[in-house]
Amino acid sequence: MNLKEFSHRIGLSPTTVSRALNGYPEVSERTRRKVLESAERLGYTPNSRAARLATGRAMTIGHILPLSKEHEMVNPIFSDFIAGAGEQYSKTGYDLSLSVVRDEDEAEAYRDLATRGVVDGVVIHGPKIEDPRIRLLRELGLPFVVHGRSSRVHGEYNWVDVNNRRAFSRATEFLLDLGHRRIGLINGLHGMDFATRRLNGYCDALEARGITQDPELISSGEMTENYGFDTTIQMLDSDNPPTAILISSIVPAMGARRALHDLGIGLGDEVSVVIHDDDLSYFRNEGDVPIFTATRSSVREAGRLCADILLDTIRGAEDGRRHVLLEADLTVGQSTGPAPAMRHLLDRDRTETLRRPQTLT
Amino acid sequence: MNLKEFSHRIGLSPTTVSRALNGYPEVSERTRRKVLESAERLGYTPNSRAARLATGRAMTIGHILPLSKEHEMVNPIFSDFIAGAGEQYSKTGYDLSLSVVRDEDEAEAYRDLATRGVVDGVVIHGPKIEDPRIRLLRELGLPFVVHGRSSRVHGEYNWVDVNNRRAFSRATEFLLDLGHRRIGLINGLHGMDFATRRLNGYCDALEARGITQDPELISSGEMTENYGFDTTIQMLDSDNPPTAILISSIVPAMGARRALHDLGIGLGDEVSVVIHDDDLSYFRNEGDVPIFTATRSSVREAGRLCADILLDTIRGAEDGRRHVLLEADLTVGQSTGPAPAMRHLLDRDRTETLRRPQTLT
DNA sequence: CGTAAACTTGAAACCGCTTTGAAAGATGAA
DNA sequence: TTCATCTTTCAAAGCGGTTTCAAGTTTACG
After folding, report:
1. For chain B, which domains are there?
2. I need a labelling partner for A127 at 20 to 30 A (CA). Which of A66, A197, B84, B166 fits?
């Protein structure tokens, strides 16, 4: 049933019905009640396609899910983020449009969404350093919010980010305080803004203690379980292996755990691990004492915040740009402990000679 | 720029332009080329909102992502499925609309999508036994495809499913052939159709060898890492623990691996594990010899197939219902081995007495 | 009671595209 | 050349809402 028929049936004009249904004040309470009740009874729901054309609003937020070229992989945090954002959209009557595109087609996809007018705003996922999407969206005049930030981009824009630098310097300090001196970093893909900030935090902390970073202890890659495994094996298999490792996500941490197990190295005693925990719903790092010592920040909450900010912007909230910086506090779990007195794990002879610098520092 | 202005500028009527752009045959090649070229040059793109109203087609497929009541969890296979389906949508010019709703609001959400006319069809995720959504969508007259199947639902409908029963009976047989007699099953949530079929397959195989199932060895739950951990501990901590475990997904398998490690039980020698592997992009069970012995079926491929079937249906493909049953073949990995001669893992005395029945069978 | 102000309601234009039905132009047979 | 046929193009009527502007009703108050 369409508006014309419905309004005719209940003896009112389309105008009045539309107003009643959309909560305009120019309609008396009595009439509104009558309309609402009749709509319910006769099963009338306005056609969104028509409403969208008439209002010029798409009532839809776009998310673009790029498939990484390398592994055609979907970011494992994506679904939790979407869950958070989606909740907010539902509450406010917005729909969520998801476009799955290959990495290289991403810019085109944004342009397309904008010109076709199917979204009122978009969320930028996984920003890189100096991310070109920000400029593009500004040009297109499409409201947006970034989940993360983009270094070296000038001007204000909406974003929600974790204080990655602080989190990782904090985690590194924690390990240093435990006596660790060789600390590995299993980080996200090179060029990703968050990975850079985490690296910076890690370097900050090392530098503050006068420790020079070792390229062999720093690795970047797509955060799969296998990546965590391979990198851990590789690091521990070196001449001068780390006694502690920082891992950017719980997914590669699963691989790291497997690697330690395979090598017969004790997690938390022989090698310590600190992860960044996005609080994924199917990977809760919990318990009386969590499995992993972790800097935690719920990516789902980030999704909620992004949605709120973007909707505010779209609905023409006052000022302009807004942003949120979430702090990720460190929770101590079972995966960390004092640095073994430089007992070398794979090559016991060699380590004896290494003990001295360790105790001296 | 809108159609009116664009067509005016290039000296043609809106009708002709629309036809040229939409590939109708009533327009000469020369004109079409001219239109396409001008559109490119002047940057004209038709407004989808208007096109959708005019054609009555939403050019959008709906997916509803329910948040489980228990843990407000997102199904970990969801993002890979979406990636597969989304690829197909992009290719055919369809959009994907994602609604995040609480479990209990799901029916309402389908109804809403249908009456508002924002989608041309929907995908049903995670069907339960006798799933009410199928009936609902039939009533609403909204085309749909089920990822999975629903037992005890009459009549034909579109679906794409894995042969879960066969996969799990096959996996169970494999373990039986290795001499295992006490085989645990860490399954999906009770009531889920796939979980039921897997249970049936498992029971079939046991029964065929005259082994009675033990309720203590069968568990159902939401497939989180922690669920896998807890259940494994619980099973192995019993008087009569299993020597092998079947696990419905790689996510709880991570937890099972952790449990085995914590208990100091060797995976593949002391306890064998077979998983069902959905081939998630961030959890590749690969290598020369895969980590886990597994029945594998790509959920991403299932997403592609679902999309294809649904789009065919929507575009009024001939006959009617279509379905695909995917076989999941068993790949032997490192996580399985011959049953230990009933060496009890936690209670060595007790097991000695158990050895006999084992060798007799 | 009369009139201004405040409420309610409605007619019609509009959103930007698709599509029907008709006309104009091109082609070809008679 | 004429008329029939085919091809190409167009004017106008939708699609189903929203919103402007005007008109009809009440209410308020002198």
Report:
1. 3-46 (1.10.260.40), 60-162+300-327 (3.40.50.2300), 164-298+330-360 (3.40.50.2300)
2. B84
